[in-house]
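User: Show me a protein chain along with its predicted structure.
Assistant: Here is one chain, sequence first, then structure tokens.
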Amino acid sequence: QLDHLRTGSPEEKQRAAFMLRMFASEHAENQAAIARAGAIAPLIALLQEGSPALREEAARALWNLARNREEINMSNQQAIGRAGAIRPLVSLLEDEVPRVRIVAAAVLNDLATDNMENQVAVAKAGAIGPLVRLLQDEEAPAVVMAASLLKSLAAGSGEGDVDVAMALAGAVPPLVALLRADSLLAQEQAASALGVLAGYSPAIQEAIARAGAIDALVERLRGDLMRGTTALALRNLAAGSPSNQEAIVRAGAIAPLVQLLEDGMPGVREEAACALWNLAMDNSDNQVAIVRSGAAIPLIALLKGDAQEQATLTLMSLDANK
């Protein structure tokens, strides 16, 4: 297969990439063997071929090399990034074929997951602008992948990178619009990305609020899904921002956050407690409102559970009003 991958006709190259994709699919031993055999570099070269079908097949093969069923193949993730795949994959984010754009975003998303080196490389390769445009794509999978990857890039980039900060700021309006998308998965990825972006810099935090995210997030807080993701986003929007603290309370967030303190999911309880903590911090009006909402009893109950630290900090912030 490798000879065909390197020197075959376009049809032979596509067939070889397809076979490698199949061999690699959810099979860690095959993934390792294919990487050892030297398949990564020729697959990367195929990302720049003239045939859209060949570009897509090469990207899909790299995708399968980088991922097992529900976890990343960390060794191949690193090898693919260091072999030079990131820049051509970023170029494919603007391919004329929608499927190619989606697959490129998916591969980059897996390459950037929990990998700071790749996150920085993807941002430096100029991915943020194309990803912002993908947020407005007609294909729901493209939107979901773009939002997820933007979240990873925000998490991996430092606030001091002015170019990255400016590019990320451009993602705010389309992400806020996605909070009301038809796709629940797109809504959740948008809320998650906005939560990370809110923690990136005070300027982006304020931009998210100005774009109308707070009301939309509080609406989602009252729903049956994505409660933890939404609570995290509100927590980061409230952090250190008196104007956002007030806006979140005006939007009616306290009552649903207090209800989430008794949610069946531990992570949701923790995020709700943290959100209330940030709303109460140095804000006596919010402290009074949270106490009056009945938060004390469920917070005290959390002192015996997995959210003990978060509950303690929130109770301490409420006690500051006494």
